[in-house]
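The records we work with from here on pair a chain with its fold. These numbers are not coordinates but entries in a learned vocabulary of local backbone shapes. To see the layout at work, look at the sequence and tokens printed below.

. . .
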Amino acid sequence: MKHVRLGAVALVAVAALALAGCGRSDTAADGGSDAPTTIGSEPATGTVTLWAMGAEGEALPDFVKTFEDANPGVKVEVTAIPWDAAYSKIQTAIAGGTTPDIAMMGSTWMADFADAFQSVPTDLDTSGSFPGAVGSTKVGDRATGVPWYVDTRVLYYRTDLAAQAGWTKAPTTWDELSQMAADLQAKAGAKYGIRLPGGNDSFQGTLWMPWSNGATLEDGSKWTLDTPQMVEAYQYYQSFFQKGIANPSADRSSGAQENDFVSGDTPMLIDGPFMIGSLEKVGGAGFSDKFTTAVLPTKESSTSFSGGANLTVFKNSKNAHSAWKLAQWLTDPTTQVQWYEKTGDLPAVQAAWKDAALASQPNLKAFGTQLETAKSVPATTTWVQVAAAGDAVLEKVRLGTQSPADAMKELQSKADALGVG
């Protein structure tokens, strides 16, 4: 199979954090309108300029040749951009009126640049995409892009060590997750039962806890971060460290969690689809038979983070019709399967998951199920700063120097000062 690798979610967060003070552009192109149009049935023609980041930017030039063959009058010019330069390059292009026709856009960047994006045409149907992915394209009531590929977080655990600890199936509740982690430690020789997020991106990485506990992050006009549901969720988070079944000082360097998982030192973790390939690479031949994935345990629900990348067409596009035709083709279920086979990016369109290329991969099943209820972070220009403030308070919660109630009170105060954008 094509192993899934690190996609937009973590890299977007890192790049955006470095540029968090930039905020939404005030210089969106004057040409074009927010009002949605239609694509129609006419073939794509002319030149379409496309910007894409990372591995996607490298893979697209060959991949879009199929689109060009189906539309003989069109030429797609792809510019590959490093992730660490993408945010500032997009911002500069918007300010200077030099944007491409269409671009790959990290799901957490949508609000920052929404003023420069066209509205999605009325005949480009996104109802078949995962709801959380569609949610990431909405800024206010306006659809500013279409989901392209998706990412979410699920539970990974060592089935061989779980069996030694008396577990033959995945934990399905919060209490069971805590108990399984303790049993892996007490009965299967693990140093720690589970690894939980810490450091950069830890707040976003733990959102499944408050979301699964019925919490919301904002209500449209203000942040809601110090509610009882939020506090209870982070009391649960802190309990793993207080009980000694998670390590508050775990090594966060690259590859550390994979090594601890493969060695059995920490045989449970929560991460994205790229981790499948990483674990198989570190574990070597046959290791894929020793672990599995499962949806996150339920409190009121099982709700994980929805990330990935979207496709956006800029207001000052010189060939918007053909750019939207390209977006329509890239989000077709058949094309989505072909893209997965080439890159490992998980399809945003649910119908693509029925294809054998994905349906035959047992460790992907949990991701498909989790994505049905996954949620996107708020589409606000201040989200990155709020998430960074969340990382800072969770550091104190994890180390036991601040109670979850005080941490959420502090986070609420900081978020109130930032506003909802």
Notes: Confidence is low (pLDDT under 50) at residues 1-31.
